[in-house]
Amino acid sequence: MLPGVSFIEQVEALKKGDKKSIILDGKGKASVAVVSSLIDKEYIDSNGMKGKGFKSIHFLGDSLWLLGSQTLPPLIEGTSSGLGKMEEANSKRDLNENSNEGKDEKIEEISLSLSSQTLAQKLEQDELIDYCFTYTAKNYFKGEHLKELPMLYNIFWVVMSNVPCRPLRSTHLDIKKSKWKKLSVFLEEKMKENIVQVEEKKEGVFQIVSIDKAHPSLVGFRGDLFSEEELSENVAILAEREGDQVNEKIEIIEMFKAPSLLFPLFQEQGKRKEDLYDISQVREAISAYIATHNLTVEKSKQNVVLDILLAGIVLKKGEYKETISKKDLNEIIINKMQPHYILKIGDDNSEIRKGSPGPINITLEDRQQRKHITHIFGLESFGINPNSVSSEFNKLFAASTTVQQLPGKTAGKEVLIQGDFVKEIATYIIEKYSIPKKYLQASHKGKTININ
Fold it and tell me: What pLDDT, in 10s, does the model give residues 127-140?
């Protein structure tokens, strides 16, 4: 990117396709990469130092470098090389030292603001990621954690990133800054080494099935890359995590309110018009009214005589009936009650909401080239913030997510995730929030998806 360029030599002669070398910013000149120019002087004059300027051809630490002598550039005074445990280079290379007249293309030197620390981070990421993988494979999957296998790639990455085998605050795992670039490439390498066994759960979604604890790389692993002093910061971090854990369990209690037509049934028992009742309390109120007014049919204890109040509730216009079964009476009255529900979130928060809860809808949409989009809406009915859960899904499934407003002023928002994650999302919602399955509906092309 051009914003990182501090100075370009021979900028007047810069043309598209020119080959340039990247050198470390500091005292001395150590070439660490070869690039091809994507821009020329006219572009810089018109746009300034913005956008992409060069395409990488070869760089220190890539596969070509690994096939060679793996010689490193000399450490530069005044910079933090970070190449640490690797040997200091025994030779210097200057791509402009000798030019061959017989070659069509001439490699010219370009001075970029690419510090040795940036290269160090790349090399250190390779070592750090491999170290954390080995530690996790050897030490995490024991006892109860063995039941977590099979484990999706992205969930494994979350576990690996949070295992306290490294200083959790002062170090950071970033697969994109490693030589593998993608987690799938890294784990495929571990599969070829026979450390893990993987399988494709469904199209494009992979999971780790098993780990060979007897593999030499795990058996001989010492796990001593960091000292106790370096790991001491984890004590406070783990304590913070423990303290920050909030009970996000959600409890739904379905309740009912009596409309004006039904309120006399409850008024006789001293109830107020604003009172709410669960379904058992509604049945108790009906039974109490029947007993108070002696409405049970003597010869048939399961039937009830319809008095003026009950007849007004039960009978339709023009309909005549003297008795009704208790079962039918209960069903009719419950269906005419106004639904409400109490939403309890965690230990302290609760609120009363009108209407019936849910459902949370999870639908799968097909896109071109066998791609999918998973839609989730209805989260607000359960006090779940779509924006927050979108961020969680982004990390958990390592997939692109977005939130958009549904049509209508009170329609709420929906979360969109790139990929087919219907069952994974249903499992996440059920396990994290303790929401019963009956409040979740999953579908694809109008057909119900079994989320068991």
Answer: 999 999 999 999 99
